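HUMAN: Ready with one sample?

ASSISTANT:
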Amino acid sequence: MNHNGSRWIDPAPLEVARPRLPWWTLLPRWVKVVLSPVILAWLVCWTTYQVGRILWRYPLTMGVALLAGWLDAELGHLGLLWVLTGITAVLALWWWRARSSFQRFALPQARTEYRRVAIYAGHWRTVMRLSDLVKTSRGREYRPKLGLVRSEGWRDRVRVRMVKGQAPEQWELRASGLAHSFRATSCRVRVRKPGRLELDFVHRDPLARAIPAPALAPEDSAVDLKRVTVGRQENGKPWRLPLQGTHVLGVGVTGAGKGSLAWAVAWALAPALRSGAVRMYGIDPKGGMELGQAPEVFRSVVFNNGEETVSLLEEIAAEVKQRAERYRGFLRSWNPNTGDPFLLVVIDELADLLAYQPDKNLRERANRAVQTITSQGRAPGVCVLGLVQDPRKEIVAFRHLFSTRIAMRLDEKAQVDMVLGDGVCERGAAAHEISEHTPGVAWGKEDGKREPFRARAFHITDHDLIELVEYVTGVPVRRADVLPFPARNDSDGGAVA
């Protein structure tokens, strides 16, 4: 009892965390003495590894520091100053006279080392904690490890070793927050190997400017129908689109650049179109506003969604069946040695043909013909390049028959997964965020690869189309003479001659 005679109350128990000692502290003294050489050797190896890792990650910084220290010891402060001034002058002259090689060889390493220290290493622990990518168990913190960093000007490639028990999907859900934390416009997550990721932090758009079409290939050039170059990827590699053995579905809103994709394909196929090894058929239900710019490159082209269009599709479907009968027992798939040309059917706006046609009979016939071609035409050497604005199943019920799909600028985030597959938008394919000022930019996904890629089709101008027609037909196109509009004559009361 206390001094006031009241009842005694026990104080609250003191809770103290039990310290966890390393296991080697529990060893007997004689064991520690025996193991001391092993421990010393381990410390030497660990120190050597850490020094080597620093030299590997910061070769330029460490090299300059070691060189400066050696020069200072040999030449003194004044000699070091003269040497550094000379090196700076040489680098400035290199940048001035050969800027492209300077940016290719000297700048990337310096930029990489600076960004690793200033952007990533200094903030890595804080960002990982605030992003809930750190795990804690028994008072110990497990944090993803920052690996190799490579700066390529428009993006930083950051390699990461995940914590045990993590999945790439956890990083994909936090990609937007990571991008803002490390001052990037976007972050894309790619899987390198089990447990290892590579994060792409994008700073600027390398596809912001239109890509001019390359020179037409010589007339005798061979065309690889499995790797048709139609543009350039954002990493600088050619964008190669397969045509043989697949069907291509391009989806994008009005003004997304679907026409650029179609004409880029025709541009790449020009030698084969000229020789007759490839035949293109065009269907433009919009009245020929797109394909009507160069109808001469097509074997046959129609500009409506009526009887003429349906008859053309049914003829091609019949050709598919006839080829299958001829190849049966001899060939598994079409090749140039068959003597039959490869057929490419370009349909600019599938919806007008398959969904918006008011005549039920024509609509059903068109659907049957297109389904026959897309389901049976791959092996006999027939490919459909279908362009559409709305990717919903109600519009294109058999979009699964198009094994190669391209997502250009879209309206909604959900449409990205409709085109490229579930979860692709979370992995960085933000087709709904493509700017309206960059027509031709698209996201694609290669078969067998988890991560999508971003590319832009060649910009085919009206002058390029004239050149294409002359190349394919061998007949010069007569260009119309544009006369100046007569000036206004105010003395005639505003009448124009």
